[in-house]
Amino acid sequence: MARTLWKTAAVAAAAGSLALAACSSGPTTGTETFTLTTHSISPNPVYHAVASGVFSATGTVQATSGASDAPLLAKFPDGTFRLGHLTAGHQSASIDPKTCAATFNQKGSSYKLSNGTGNYQGIQGNGSASLKFTGTLPKLGTGHCNTTNSAVPKSGSTTTMVHASGPLTLP
Fold this sequence. Notes:
By secondary structure, this protein is mostly beta strands. It contains 1 helix and 9 strands. It has one domain. The protein is 12% helix and 49% strand.
């Protein structure tokens, strides 16, 4: 779950940066802010990406494979780009022992943008992101929360949101 979450944060940051560059006719440098959201419990979910700031765009972000170090692929109407060199940042988690409501936070994640196609060809950038995951874990027969690595949050109870921003340059 943590791997997916930090990748989400990085993807969100990249998506926003990409949107900034998409609408320019010459070299563009600036800062873009964006949000990634998913309600999926899949180990490699597709995130809905919304970029805002100087430019706006919507698209998707997903890891290119199930490998823990796989880059992310951001897809927007005018092209794609990769998010790599992802770092996890500082992580914290809490679980309510009565309700099994779980929260996972990550701050200070970082990313680098590359391999742009379409309007994003030549994209370069980096930035930082934070994410928050919430969901309800299942209970064991003993009544305790299942906190094992294999525990799957209850369907329909999860939300992952990533907020990110950073500078980018698009030739």
